[in-house]
Every structure is written in C-alpha cells, then in structure tokens.
UniProtKB/TrEMBL annotation:
It is a multi-pass membrane protein. InterPro entries: MFS, MFS_dom, MFS_trans_sf. GO terms for molecular function: transmembrane transporter activity. Its main location: membrane. One of its GO terms (cellular component) is membrane. It is found in: Membrane. It comes from the Bacteria. This is MFS transporter. Residues 22-455 form the Major facilitator superfamily (MFS) profile domain. It comes from Billgrantia kenyensis. It holds the Pfam family MFS_1. The keyword NAD does not apply. The keyword Transcription regulation does not apply.
Length: 477
C-alpha cells in the first residue's frame, strides 16, 4: 500500500501526503454510494410496513436511486469540465449528505422517493468522475494499482452492504440507514475540499440539448430494463426501449455537431478505448446476470435459505477485493490486455461451472465456483479500466470516466433484465448462466483483439518523458 503514495522525480499527479487525503475522500464517497444500494435493499420490507405501502411500491426506493444515478453519469462528467472536478465532487457529496438527512426524516413514501432521487443525482456526480480523479491524483506509473484499489473499494462496498444493513436494522429502525451517511459524508466533504486537485474549468458552453437527450436515452433504457426484470407487460418494455433508441439516435447526431459534446466522437476513434469499453460492458452483463440468476439457483433449485444464499455469494466480492489490487499492480508492469483476457477466461469457466452445478451439491462445491468467478472478474476489471483510462487522450479523461461508469451500469442492468426475460419465459435458470458465458466469450474476443495494439501503446505511455506529461495539479494551501 505504501507504494501507492511514493513519489519519484518527474511524477505527475499529487504529492504523496496530499494523495493520501484525496484518495481517502474518494474511498469514502464511493463506499457511501455503493453500500447504499445493497444496504437499503435489506430494509425494503421494513420501509413498506412502516410507511404502509405495498412491496411493489417500496421497491422504487431502490429503483429510483439507481435510475437517476445511471441517467446523469454522462451529464455530470461533462458538467465537471465547466466547473472543475473538485467542485462537482464536493457538490455531489454535499447533495448526497443533504438528501440522506432528508431520507432519514421522511415519513411518507413520496418524500422518501424525492430524497432518493437527489441521492442518486449526488452519487452520479461522484461516481462519474471517480476514475478520472484517480488518473489526476496518481502518477501514470501507478494508475493500474490505483484502479485496483478502486475495484477493492467497490467490491467491498457491495459485499458489506447487506451485513451493515442487517446489523443496523437489528438494533435500530430503517431511517438510521440513511443517517449513517451523515458522519462519513461530512468527513469526506472536508477531505475532498482540502485535498482534491485544484483545476480551472474550461471556458465555453454546455451542451444542454445533449444533456437532456442523454438523460432521456439512459433513463428510458433503465426503465425498459426494470420493466423486463419485474415481469411487466412486454409492450411497456418495448415502449421505453423504443424511446431510448430514438433519443439515442438523436443524441449521437447531436454529439457530432456540438462544440462541447458530452460524448466526444474523437474518444471512440481510439481503437484501444473502443475495444476496452466493449469488453467491459459485456463482462458486466455476465456479472449482473449471474448475481440475480444465482439467487434463484441457490434458493429455488437447490433449496438454500436466504441467509445461506448470502454467504454463498460472499466469495465473489471477497475474491475481487483480494485479486483486484494485485491485478492492478501487475497491469502497471505488463500488458493489461493480457491480464484482462486471462480474467475473462476464468470468469467464463466459473460461470460454466455454476451452470453445471448439480442440485444436490454441497456448500463447499458451490463456494469454489463462485470464488472462481470473483477471481476472474478481479483479474479483468482493474487492467481493463487502466486500459480505458490510459488509452483516452488526457484532455478527454473526464469523458472517458463518464463512459466507464455508464458502461458498467448499463451492462449490469442489461444482465438483470435478461434474467427477468428468461424467467418470464419459464426458461431454466441454468440457461441464463450459459448466456453469461456467451457474454464473457464475446468480451474475450474484444479483449484479445487489442493485445497487440495495447502492447505497443503501453511502451509509449510508460516511457513517456516528464516533459510530455502535464504539470502536476497545484498543491492545496
């Protein structure tokens, strides 16, 4: 860990002491946004009972947060270029903390949903620019290790959410789940204001029409996926999907003409970036699909209780936490595309082994298969994220960060929706796991296609002379 905060002559990024504070602010902000999803899921029955609403309506406490967060990722990433990433990150944290207080004090579902939407907007502001801040905080030579730390934080948050939620609910009521964000948020706010890199926002306008198109495109897409996942009438899903496709077409046309596009076309002219995005989206389809499919497999097919099912999931995020930092460090020294491809092979083998899991299998037989998936994903994600961030031109790193976060969210949501569609068609749950294998196989094809080009580009970027690197951000006084 100390290697992450070492400083060498000619390093870009922040000096070691300020790097520690800035990273701690990033970790706390990310943890709050990630833990919130799985933590609040545990409380949905209690929220429905206390607010006297149906379970179907209570589900929107989680859904609205995720939809708003996903819909505004690209918008927030682009807006940060105008006001600076530091100001957007601090504003996002402040909004998240304020909304958490409002959610804790809410005594009706309507007000709770309002504050959950505001929480989602605050989370979008922080998550959309997180990867680009890692690139700004850390020197290029340590970027893989830094993104490995990011993978550890995200996986740890997802793993800890249910446990934290269950622990709080065992001694207090559900509003305390939201109140828990207040002390962490205030500390993170102070750290972010104190240590985040100071930079000037660019001059020029903001693509308001593009922002509106992006929100409608992504929001309607996630509503379509949510409709499929919950078994609503097919025409509703098709209507939302049609709106998403039409708006997406108009949005892309707008991006070619806009002076400050949310999604710069030049970014996707870089083949390494384009291939890394494709591999990332498909891998997250596989993971999102597996997370839902395994719940049905363990409980309905194999007869495990919900508690046992939660424990059977644990090896996946734990393996990412253990393997992710190692994979990130190795990606700084070797071709990251090779590491990512190896991870996809292991993830694909893990999903195949779960699809072949017999109904009378024991707990240990299930655990090693889930752990294999986690090891594979842990080997894939940090090197692939490093490839995405370093292949993008530095002046477009904020846009690349928004694309990275959006790709992850879209992939996971599509995976969840596919499970809902297959279950609605009464297909065996094992079929969905084989679909996850297919998604990983396609991701592997994209990953292998970039090995040669990324190897040549890595030699150029690692050997970058200090004179070619932008001057480090100003130190905070």
């Amino acid at each position: 860990m100390s290697r992450l905060f070492s400083t060498r002559p000619g390093d870009d990024g922040l000096p070691g002491p300020e790097r520690r504070l800035a990273v701690l602010a990033l970790i706390l902000g990310t943890l709050m946004a990630v833990v919130d999803v799985t933590m609040v899921n545990i409380a949905l029955p209690s929220i429905a009972r206390d607010l006297d609403v149906s379970a179907a309506r209570a589900v929107w406490v989680t859904n609205l947060y995720q939809i708003v967060c996903a819909a505004f990722l690209l918008v927030c990433a682009s807006f940060s270029e105008m006001i600076s990433r530091r100001r957007l990150y601090v504003a996002g944290l402040a909004l998240f903390v304020f909304a958490s207080l409002g959610a804790a004090l809410s005594r009706s579902l309507e007000w709770l949903l309002v504050f959950r939407a505001l929480q989602g907007l605050g989370a979008a502001a922080t998550l959309s620019i997180g990867p680009s801040l890692y690139r700004s905080i850390f020197p290029t030579r340590l970027l893989g290790s830094a993104l490995g730390l990011s993978a550890l934080v995200v996986a740890g948050g997802y793993a800890a959410g249910p446990a934290v939620g269950g622990l709080v609910l065992s001694v207090a009521s559900w509003p305390w789940l939201f109140a828990l964000h207040l002390p962490l948020g205030l500390v993170s706010l102070w750290l972010a204001w104190r240590a985040m890199p100071r930079e000037k926002g660019r001059r020029g306008g903001f693509d308001g029409r593009g922002a509106l198109g992006s929100v409608i495109m992504l929001g309607s897409f996630f509503l379509a996926m949510d409709t499929v996942a919950h078994g609503a009438p097919l025409w509703q899903a098709l209507a939302w999907l049609a709106l998403s496709l039409v708006t997406g077409y108009l949005f892309l046309r707008r991006q070619r003409r806009a002076s400050h596009p949310l999604l710069p076309p030049r970014l996707f002219q870089v083949s390494r970036f384009r291939l890394a995005v494709s591999a990332s989206g498909l891998a997250f389809v596989g993971q999102g699909l597996a997370f839902v499919a395994l719940s049905f497999l363990y409980q309905q097919e194999m007869g495990f209780s919900p508690l046992h099912t939660a424990w059977l999931f644990t090896p996946w995020p734990l393996a990412i936490m253990l393997v992710g930092p190692i994979a990130g460090r190795l990606a700084d020294r070797t071709n990251p595309s090779i590491m990512a491809s190896l991870g996809l092979v292991l993830l694909m083998l893990g999903l195949a082994s779960l699809a072949l899991l017999p109904e009378d299998a024991g707990i240990l037989d299930s655990l090693w298969r889930t752990a294999l998936c986690g090891i594979g994903f842990g080997l894939f994600q940090p090197p692939n994220n490093r490839e995405m961030m370093t292949s993008a031109p530095r002046e477009l790193s904020t846009s690349a960060s928004g694309v990275l976060s959006t790709t992850r969210t879209v992939g996971q949501s599509l995976g969840v929706a596919l499970v809902g569609a297959f279950m609605a068609a009464n297909a065996p749950v094992q079929i969905t796991l084989w679909v996850g294998c297919l998604a990983c196989l396609l991701a592997l094809g994209f990953s292998l296609a970039r090995i040669r080009v990324s190897g040549a580009a890595r030699k150029a970027s690692v050997g970058e002379a200090p004179s070619r690197v932008q001057s480090p951000p100003k130190r905070v006084q």
